[in-house]
Amino acid sequence: MEEPFKPLSLSIRELFGNADALYKIPQYQRPYKWEDEQVDKLWEDITDAFKNGESNYFLGSIITAKPREDEKSAYVDVVDGQQRLTTLMILFCVIRDTYPDLNAGTTEDPFAVDADTISSSIALFGKANRLKLFTHRQHQSDFEALILKGNTAEHRKPYKYQIRTDEEPKYKFLNTANIFRNNLLELGKPQSEELINFLFNQVKIIRIDCKNRDFAIKLFQVLNDRGMDLTAADLIKSYLLEKLYTKYKEDTDTSKLKEEQFIADWREMEQMVKTCEEDISMNDLFIIYEYYTLGQNPKRSLYDELQEAFKGKDPNEVISDIKKFVTTYFKEIYSGKDEVLYSFWYLRWNMYWKSILLAALHTEYVEYHELKSALRRFYYLYWIAGKTLSKIKQASFNMIKWVKEGRPISEIKVELENKLLEDKIISQALESLNSENINNENWIKPLLIMMEYNATDRSKLSFIPLQRDLHLEHILPEKYERFTEWSHIKKEVAAKWLNSAGNLTLLSGAKNIEASNNPFPIKMEVYKGKGKYDDKDDKITAFAISQRIVHEYEKNLYDRQWTEDSMIDRWKWFFAEVGQLLEIDVKEAIEKHKPLVI
């Protein structure tokens, strides 16, 4: 019986010199990505081992897979190790162009590496390139023109912005070549010859040859603990491409067209994800798609679950549906503009609310807007009540399932209300809101921002990010005792109200530090601010919920002072807003208008 894999310890000479040493980087792999840091590290590893006189130096492992049975090719797929193999191939080409007469006068050492050895490592019998890049049609032609068949000595170092362009790895090829050429010239020919002899004869790589791609990918998942070059999304891409090849193996022309369509859809998705990469990755979106597909808590890995889900489905239809999913995320979630959607961005459990909203959008759920509001209420109440993921996880999967089933929002609301009652969430949330120390709660700023959205003209609405210069402002300063202007506030009043809902608002801008501990009239000038939210440090933002205090001040309420009565009014306003936003009964809290010691 054929072994599923075979590990071989090979010198660099054997890795690129044996008759079976023909490698291809398949389409599901990412393009060449190494920049200065990675190339320098490889060079240092090799040169340090050489200087230390190590008899054998281990440079890591690579995993290869045999081609499909229907693919008549001598080349093996590189499942892991493509960056190192590509970098070493670039080094060989630089050696060829920098020292064309390498070790030409050496006769006593049969293992000395000469020009023929280098040439054979680049191409077998001068015909078949040892390494082919199939990550993109243009990548292979660029690699051949610039590196394999070009003169690496003719090209200058690319600009930094070019090197950082992932879509055109040709600049990374040239950058790597430039680094190696400079290093070899700095060493000089005699020492370079010794180093190259060491590299080819005493540096070893373990090549693990697998019987097929599927086993190679699974082995890679087990062995790779270095931070995966391949993500679960890449593995799913590989699986779908394999299904596509199998489906059209008897029709080469159709197979090529379907493959090109698949790759085009995949790249379009990658571009959209790149636009919002500070928020989400391709892998995250596949997890969300998994949640949507299963409608329940996954029991296996992302790759295994989706592989099972995609059985019997056309790969092009699958990727088209996923592209539609990603497009919806980009247009409706990431780029969406309304106060309810904005509120979600402050929440924890973002993979769950995104999954539910995307499931609704993807299935064209007719009561999407009502669902959005119900979902916000549900999550915020659990957050304010101090609950963890375990309390909302199953309910979240249930909501995905209900949305896919098209259950009316009235039924979903009943289910959510029952869950809230069962977990006693509303009473616990009210207890948290009533606390005389809510200033340190991580939900208080988002809650005040929600109130700001509620008080803002819809035509002027914009997202308020949780940045450093967005401050939770104590209207009665925390250091009030330092100012005679605050002498009317007694210690027992301050103890009760200082950190409660009745004494908090929002202020943004660097000058908030100036406002924090000033007398009330100065604070009022600061609260007037410059208008809408502004991220320039020299400006203070006037929030509507802060300007409300200014309006009362200008009406000469409470003799233009911030008093206990002022804080009671602020308390009542806060709870009225909470009641409206979260649809809960706050009548008792307003009537008591008194913070609780918790």
Biggest sheet strand order reads 1-8-3-4-2-7
**Mean pLDDT over the residues:** 88
- β-strand percent reads 5-15%
Gap from first CA to last CA: 69 Å
Low-pLDDT residue intervals, each spanning 5 or more residues: 531-538
What structural category characterises the helix and strand content? alpha/beta
Counting DSSP E segments of at least 2 residues, the number of strands comes to 10
The gist of it:
With about 600 residues, the chain is an alpha/beta fold. The chain contains 27 helices and 10 strands. β5 and β6 form a beta hairpin.
Question: What does this protein look like?
Answer:
- With 598 residues, this protein is an alpha/beta fold.
- The chain folds into three domains: 5-223, no CATH class; 231-335, no CATH class; 444-592, no CATH class.
- It is built from 27 helices and ten strands.
- The chain has helices spanning 12-15, 36-51, 82-98, 115-122, 137-148, 160-163, 170-187, 189-202, 213-223, 232-247, 252-275, 282-294, 302-309, 315-334, 339-344, 350-362, 368-384, 389-405, 409-422, 425-433, 444-455, 491-497, 512-516, 520-528, 544-554, 564-582, 587-592; strands spanning 5-11, 23-25, 57-65, 76-80, 123-124, 128-129, 131-133, 203-210, 470-474, 504-508.
- The chain has a six-stranded mixed sheet. Strands 5-6 form a two-stranded antiparallel sheet.
- Helix 3 (82-98) packs antiparallel against helix 4 (115-122) and helix 16 (350-362) packs parallel to helix 18 (389-405).
- The chain is elongated, with a radius of gyration of 32 Å.
